[in-house]
Design goal:
By secondary structure, the chain is an alpha/beta fold. The protein has a 6-stranded mixed beta sheet with strand order 1-6-5-2-4-3, with helices on both faces. The radius of gyration is 21 Å and the shape is elongated. The protein starts with 10 loop residues before the first strand and ends with a helix.
């Protein structure tokens, strides 16, 4: 991969390990080293794996070598070019874990949700344990993928639903990992209004859009759940609370037309 093929901000890369021979992990480390070398503000890097046992007798341990594997397993940092590299597992990793870059190895969707909930990283590199494990993350972020041309991704098919999501996002507290009661009621009502006028969308698309637009994965899960419940109603709802203006659907339609 050429460095100029990697976007400046945000820097997200996925490297698929189809052969399970460690080549993808080696490539991921090389990409991280190149990106860190280009940005002098990258000084602390995290190697994120499911469990500490993944550093024993695996392709990862073979690529890293004993000189790096042993101190990492013992909780120590190792030199990585101009940076330091330390180990985190799913159990120790938090949404407030501080570092400049993260390399997630043997990753799945749950691990990448945790990464998305952390706003500290300038570089995110993902090596899934199987390609299918991070399909939703890839669809959400459209990261650089070696060997494939990057194209623009459209997450929401219905522009009126997207206009509604923009309104919802503008009024809820994105600083909270989960929706507070008032925000939750507003979200429920918005989806019920959409369903009442036959404006629907795949709930999975809504989750992806929310995450890409600043929602925590837990809040995005709630949005997906409420959307699915509203859109699957057999009959149109006739009541939808007092959280939105009477002409809110017209506002969303006008916004969608622009």
């Amino acid at each position: 991969m050429k460095k100029e093929d990697i976007p400046m901000d945000p820097k997200r890369v996925v490297i698929l390990d189809d052969e399970f021979d460690g080549a993808a992990i080696k490539t991921a480390l090389q990409v991280l080293a190149e990106l860190a070398n280009d940005d002098k503000n990258i000084r602390e890097c995290v190697l994120l794996i499911p469990v500490k046992g993944n550093l024993q007798h695996t392709t990862l341990s073979a690529v890293l070598g004993e000189n790096a594997t042993k101190p990492l397993s013992g909780g120590k940092s190792v030199r990585f070019g101009q940076c330091s590299l330390r180990l985190e597992t799913e159990r120790s990793f938090k949404n407030y874990t501080k570092a400049d870059a993260v390399l997630a190895v043997y990753a799945d969707q749950r691990m990448m949700d945790s990464v998305d909930s952390n706003g500290n990283f300038k570089i995110v590199i993902c090596v899934p344990h199987i390609p299918e494990a991070v399909e939703e993350w890839v669809r959400t972020w459209n990261p650089v993928m070696p060997g494939q041309q990057q194209t623009g991704a459209v997450l929401i098919d219905n522009p009126i639903v997207e206009a509604a999501l923009e309104s919802i996002t503008g009024r809820i507290n994105l600083g909270s990992r989960i929706l507070n009661p008032r925000d939750e009621e507003a979200v429920k009502d918005a989806f019920r209004i959409l369903r009442a006028h036959n404006e629907v969308e795949d709930p999975k698309n809504i989750r992806a859009w929310c995450i890409k637009n600043g929602w925590d994965s837990k809040g995005a899960d709630e949005a997906m759940k409420h959307a699915a419940k509203a859109f699957n109603l057999k009959s149109k709802p006739s009541r939808y609370g007092q959280h939105w203006a009477d002409n809110i659907l017209t506002q969303w339609m006008n916004k969608a037309d622009k």
